[in-house]
Amino acid sequence: MQLTAEQKTIRALAAEIARKEIAPHVATWDREHAFPRKLFTTMNDAGLMGILVPERYGGSGAGYAAYALAVEEIARVDAGSAVTLSVHSMICAAIDQLGSEEQKQRWLPRLAAQDAIAGFALTESDAGSDAANIRATAVRDGDGYRLDGRKQWCTSGRFAAVMMAMFRTGGPGAKGVSAFLVDPHGEGVRVERVTEKLGVRTSDTCDLAFERARVPRSALLGEDGSGFFGAMRALAGGRIGIAAQAAGILAACLDASVTFATERRAFGKTIGAFEGVSFKIARMATDLDAARLLAHEAAALADAGEAFAVAASKAKFFASTAARTHASEALQIHGGYGYTTEFPIERYYRDAKITEIYEGTSEIQQVIIGRSLLGRLE
Ligand SMILES: Cc1cc2nc3c(=O)[nH]c(=O)nc-3n(C[C@H](O)[C@H](O)[C@H](O)COP(=O)(O)OP(=O)(O)OC[C@H]3O[C@@H](n4cnc5c(N)ncnc54)[C@H](O)[C@@H]3O)c2cc1C
Q1: Which among 53, 143, 179, 253 counts the fewest CB atoms within 10 Å?
Q2: 255, pLDDT greater than 90
Q3: Residues whose beta carbon lies within 6 Å of some atom of ligand 1
Q4: Is the predicted pLDDT of residue 1 greater than 90, yes or no?
């Protein structure tokens, strides 16, 4: 992978923040399910929150390849913080692509450089993969809209300054959905439940209840009725981030496995001398390279302004499967130690699983890839 000087600088910056600001604390944050709010101030000051924000709105406009590199470096130390960064960046891109000039001027400088975090609210209790089936409504009310309903598992819901949230403004199906930029702390919006999770515990996941929450017409993101398509477009970009997050977990598994396999001894040898162990490490390293290359390919297409959604699905599908598989193998290499909280492997193992679920499950990625080849067969 040939990287530009800017991409290398961003990767080094993210690696330094991960090493200095995250590594010493991540085990405690994970144990306590703590959201490291200050970390995002540090990332903001360093310019990492504005990678997908154009320079004219205060970001670096460094693009998707740089975004993937930054997310991977953060995920290598903490997958939870990486998903916060990934979702935030995905919403920045959505506002840039779909927003009015007024929305861009209002939100992008804050999200890029003034310490504001963005989140995403599409899923409901009865609409996850089948996202076109959401029920929360936005009804015209004077010169604005009235929002009602409940959004489930909103990333950064308690800490975000703005959420991209989808509501039904029209009839059933995808064409009846509109996207809004909503203040999750505004009147009529409340945190209904904070979700405790198997992994990515340093990310915030909560349900938001909307009860007669009024938003002005200017909160509508894109055209009325275009929200489902806007969300799908945003998620395609987000999947590059989740592929990078999975690659970061995989890289952490590889680093830990190499170290352990060269130190641990059994039967008078270091365990890495056994092919049963070294082959696991060889497969891990090969899949890591493949995951990175697929993410980079999707990012390069996105940065070139070409169609990238299928490439992003392939990258996410491959990288998340590899992360889940190799986190288990890395734990196996560590034997009993891997199962304890003395080593971070158990956390990688817990964190890896979610990459196969959010922003479209692995099955949904395969639906997208299959349809790109076969069309919609009856
Ligand atoms: C930690 C966490 C964070 C999240 N963050 C966000 C967020 O920020 N914003 C947000 O809006 N949502 C978020 N989500 C929701 C997430 O995107 C959904 O959980 C995911 O899309 C799957 O939806 P579901 O859980 O309803 O599963 P379902 O859609 O009910 O799927 C259940 C099973 O059926 C399979 N399935 C469904 N349809 C098909 C099909 N057509 N073909 C084959 N298999 C199928 C699925 O692959 C899965 O295995 C988050 C979830 C979690 C756990």
Answers
A1: 143
A2: yes
A3: 87, 120-123, 128-130, 153-155, 197, 200, 205, 354, 357-361, 363-364, 367
A4: no
User: How far away, in angstroms, is 128 Cα from ligand 1 center?
Assistant: 4
Could you tell me the pTM of the whole model?
Answer: 0.98
Catalytic residue flag (residue 275): no
Report the topology of domain 5-117: Butyryl-Coa Dehydrogenase, subunit A; domain 1 (1.10.540)
What per-residue confidence (pLDDT) applies to 378? 83
CB 252 within 8 A of CB 348: yes
CA dist., res. 251 & res. 274, Å (int): 21
Pocket test for ligand 1, best of 361, 366, 367, 376 (most atoms within 8 A of CB): 361
Residue 368 is which amino acid?
I
Name the residue of 91, 123, 374 to mutate for ligand 1: max ligand atoms within 8 A of Cβ: 123
Residues 52-62, mean pLDDT to the nearest whole number:
98
- Could you tell me which CATH class the domain 120-225 is placed in? mainly beta
CATH of region 229-374: 1.20.140.10
96-143 pLDDT, tens per residue? 999 999 999 999 999 999 999 999 999 999 999 999 999 999 999 999
Beta strands in 55-202 (DSSP E): 118-121, 137-141, 144-155, 162-168, 177-182, 189-194
Q: What are phi and psi of 183, to 5 degrees?
A: -85, 115
Domain boundaries, the chain: 5-117, 120-225, 229-374
Strands 118-121 and 162-168: parallel
Site of tokens 């891109």: 93
* pLDDT at residue 164 greater than cutoff 90: yes
Report pLDDT for 322: 98
Q: What pLDDT is attached to residue 275?
A: 98
User: Given the CA of residue 195, which atom of ligand 1 is nearest to it?
Assistant: 1
Query: Which listed residue (55, 263, 359, 363) is catalytic?
Result: 359
| Amino acid (one-letter) located at 81 | S
